[in-house]
Recover the amino acids of this structure.
């Protein structure tokens, strides 16, 4: 990869991070995708890339058997990169204009039933400060539907527990309010008042201090929560792949099953489009069909 390509990559990363305000995860993924593309180009100039070369690259990456989702993201990265170069007048025409993402089949999101959720929550060991913290976190994820990155980024200034509200910043730093159940609030308040100090003994807490911390006093990272979930799911031998996002799916599914308005659920989840929320109505319909098939004498 030549020096000019390295410079364009750095400028592109700054563009999607600052100007486009993409999430940290997206910035990392897009930057990695473009780095791979530039390495493949080798010494070939970015300005000389045409539609045929991009198609050749897409044929090249097929050998890695990426999922449709990953392939679609890599194409989106290329299109965003060349839109950026065209805007900056580095190139005279955009060679990625005619490149389309593969059609992705709609898969229903994995979720937990109420019984499964209670089994997960009740099997978290709370005989240590970290264990109690993890229980508070999972209670909060299920009660609010927030993303794990949003929970990790929480500071004390975001909490308004008197009103059972938490301010979170979602994708693109979009601000929204999520609501907290009394049960989750009780776990959170106990964690804040007593358990947090046992994890890291410090009274230096201000508005910008992280709510959830590790044993060194630094902000708890999403990977720690994923590991905590993995441990308890393996312990109870739950036959589902449970991630922090499954708590979000379970939250949305439960609300819709209990009659919540789709627009309300969209607002609570922070979806920019109602179409992203509508997939949960399919989940609810699937469960209705299963109940019908198992209970109705003439179903089969």
């Amino acid at each position: 990869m030549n020096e000019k390509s390295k410079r364009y990559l750095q400028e592109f990363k700054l563009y999607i991070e600052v100007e486009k305000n993409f999430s940290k995860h997206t910035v990392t993924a897009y930057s990695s995708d473009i780095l791979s593309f530039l390495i493949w180009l080798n010494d070939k100039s970015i300005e000389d890339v045409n539609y045929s070369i991009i198609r050749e690259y897409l044929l090249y990456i097929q050998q890695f058997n990426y999922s449709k989702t990953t392939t679609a993201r890599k194409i989106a990265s290329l299109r965003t990169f060349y839109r950026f170069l065209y805007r900056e007048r580095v190139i005279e025409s955009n060679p990625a204009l005619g490149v389309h993402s593969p059609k992705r089949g709609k898969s229903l999101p994995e979720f937990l039933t109420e019984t499964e959720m209670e089994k997960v929550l009740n099997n978290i060991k709370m005989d240590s400060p970290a264990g109690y913290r993890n229980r508070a976190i999972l209670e909060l994820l299920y009660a609010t539907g927030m993303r794990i990155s949003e929970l990790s980024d929480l500071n004390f200034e975001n909490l308004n527990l008197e009103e059972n509200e938490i301010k979170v910043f979602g994708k693109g730093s979009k601000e929204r309010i999520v609501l907290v159940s009394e049960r989750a609030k009780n776990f959170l308040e106990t964690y804040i008042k007593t358990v947090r100090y046992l994890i890291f003994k410090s009274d230096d807490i201000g508005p910008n201090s992280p709510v959830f911390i590790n044993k060194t006093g630094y902000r708890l990272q999403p990977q720690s929560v994923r590991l905590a979930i993995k441990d308890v799911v393996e312990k109870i031998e739950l036959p589902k792949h449970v991630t922090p996002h499954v708590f979000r799916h379970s939250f949305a599914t439960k609300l819709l099953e209990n009659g919540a308005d789709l627009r309300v659920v969209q607002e609570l989840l922070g979806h920019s489009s109602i179409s992203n929320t509508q997939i949960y109505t399919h989940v609810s319909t699937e469960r209705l069909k299963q109940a019908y098939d198992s209970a109705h004498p003439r179903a089969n």
Observations:
- The chain has a mean pLDDT of 88.
- The domain at 114-295 is CATH 1.10.443.10 (hpI Integrase; Chain A).
- The longest helix spans residues 274-295.
